[in-house]
Structure formats: structure tokens, C-alpha cells
Specification:
293 residues; mainly alpha; 81% helix; globular
């Protein structure tokens, strides 16, 4: 015979040995994946801490914060004055968060226009990428730092409602539903808004151009889609699919749902998928610029 017949004991020993080899290989793969993941997270956290420190020592950060709080405080005062003159059906929190689009159109470009454009203009991003970090880690770190600052600015407006509760003495002014829903909407929608700003910054070396691009993109996304939804020509049957897509991207209707306590999974998916796509395009944009430079 060309093949020796194995006994049951030898066959079981071979099976056990092969199983041990498979286990060893799977353990090695798991070990190296954990090691690689550890270094990726370590690099990301190092870059994130550096970006946060740079934001904290940058005077423009505090100028933007003062401007944001000044404008929002002025608007909040105007809302309270209108409530003192005539009774309103909605709470001040609902009206306050309904003007979210105004600070978004100005504060997001200010926070994001320098993150990649300035690095490319100074040539520091090429030097940074010679270290053992990837473009993805750099983009995610800059995005996370800008998002943390964005959320912190909005969180500081909670002092307005604390002062209102402290001195108004009327619980009707503070409806917890619109207040919690409004801040939740700001946090979720901010993911997409900041990602759009980072993407705009990856398209140009000039931070002013990046800021203008970000403003135009956000205006089209927030205001443009709303006006497009009111267009009569979209009501035709041939544009039924486009009409449903425009209605799905209506950010103002998302805000209304959040403040009413209606959390739709499709809206959450819209913001998360849009954020992922914008960040992927940002990474590809940086990579393409590096290849052509």
C-alpha cells in the first residue's frame, strides 16, 4: 500500500495536533490584532491631546467662544423679552434651539477651516505623516478636537437656562423635553456639521477658501434642502424618489422630532452615515493632495 493505515489513536493524535496548530495561529492573529489596535488608539489619543492643547492655547478659539456666547446670549435675551410681552405656546428652549442654523453656519467654519488647510499650507502635514501615524488618525484627531470644542460651546449655553431657572421662579419656562431633545439634536447633528467642515478644509490650502466652502456646503445642506422641499415641481410623480430623498434630509424636521422626544433611527443613520462619508472623502482628499504635491 502507498498509504499506511493509521490506528484510531494515531488519527486522534493528528487531529489534536492540527487543532492545536489552528488554535496557536488564531491566538497569534488575535494577539497581533490587539497590538496593532493598541498602537492605533495610542497614536490617535496622542494626536487628539495635541490638537486639544493647540485649540486651548490658540487665541482664535477664545474669540470664537466669546462671539458664540455673545450672539446666543443676545438671542436668548430677545426670546425672553418676547415672552414677557405676550404669552407663548412653546417653551423658550424650543425657540432657542430652533435658531441652531445661525451659529452653525458661522461657528463651524471658524472651528474647522484651519484644521487641514493650514497644515497643508505650512507643509507640516507631510512632516507629520513621516512619523508612524496614518492619514486616518490625523484626520480623526482633528475632527474629534473640533467636535469636542463645538459640543463644549453649546453645553456652555446651559448657563442661560440655569440663570432663567434661578431668577424666574417659574417652572413653565423650563420644559425638560425640548431642552434635552435640543441638546441631543445639537450633539448628533454636530457630528455631520463638523465632518463637512473638515472635508471643506481638506480641499484647499487657503483657510479662507476652506471657510467659504464650509459655509456654502452647510447652507446648502440646512437651508437649501428646506427650500428645495417647498419646490412645487418636486410634487410631480416623476420626482417621487427625489422628493422622498429631500424629505429624508430635512434637518429642520429632524430638529422638530428631537424636541418632541421622537428619536427616529433613520435620522440617526442619516447623521452617522453622512459623517462617515465626509470623513472618508476628507482622508481621500488629503491622500490625493499628498500624491500630487
Amino acid at each position: 500500500f502507498f498509504f499506511k493505515q493509521k490506528t484510531a489513536y494515531e488519527l486522534s493524535a493528528c487531529l489534536v495536533g492540527s487543532e492545536m496548530c489552528i488554535r496557536d495561529r488564531s491566538l497569534d492573529i488575535r494577539h497581533w490584532s490587539l497590538v496593532i489596535g493598541h498602537f492605533l488608539v495610542k497614536h490617535y489619543l496622542t494626536l487628539l491631546s495635541h490638537e486639544v492643547r493647540m485649540l486651548l492655547v490658540n487665541p482664535s478659539t477664545y474669540i470664537a467662544a466669546v462671539m458664540f456666547l455673545g450672539v446666543m446670549g443676545f438671542m436668548f435675551t430677545g426670546i425672553l423679552e418676547s415672552y414677557s410681552k405676550t404669552p407663548q405656546d412653546t417653551s423658550p428652549a424650543h425657540v432657542f434651539f430652533s435658531i441652531f442654523w445661525f451659529p452653525v453656519l458661522f461657528i463651524v467654519p471658524l472651528l474647522t477651516m484651519k484644521c487641514l488647510a493650514e497644515e497643508r499650507r505650512l507643509g507640516t502635514i507631510e512632516t507629520l505623516l513621516t512619523t508612524p501615524v496614518t492619514t486616518t488618525e490625523v484626520v480623526l484627531a482633528k475632527y474629534s478636537a473640533a467636535y469636542l470644542l463645538y459640543v463644549s460651546l453649546w453645553a456652555s449655553t446651559g448657563g442661560f437656562f440655569y440663570i432663567l431657572k434661578k431668577f424666574a421662579g417659574d417652572s413653565r419656562f423650563l420644559d425638560s423635553g425640548p431642552l434635552i431633545g435640543g441638546y441631543l439634536f445639537v450633539a448628533v447633528s454636530g457630528l455631520l456639521f463638523i465632518a463637512v467642515g473638515v472635508f471643506a478644509s481638506s480641499l484647499s490650502r487657503n483657510q479662507s477658501v476652506a471657510g467659504i466652502l464650509c459655509f456654502a456646503m452647510l447652507a446648502g445642506l440646512i437651508v437649501g434642502v428646506r427650500f428645495l422641499a417647498d419646490a412645487t415641481w418636486l410634487n410631480r410623480d416623476i420626482f417621487a424618489l427625489a422628493k422622498s430623498a429631500v424629505d429624508y434630509a430635512q434637518i429642520f424636521s429632524h430638529y422638530e422630532d428631537f424636541t418632541r422626544g421622537v428619536i427616529d433611527a433613520r435620522q440617526i443613520l442619516f447623521y452617522f452615515s453622512g459623517t462617515v462619508l465626509a470623513l472618508i472623502f476628507s482622508i481621500l482628499g488629503v491622500e490625493a493632495k499628498l500624491l500630487h504635491s
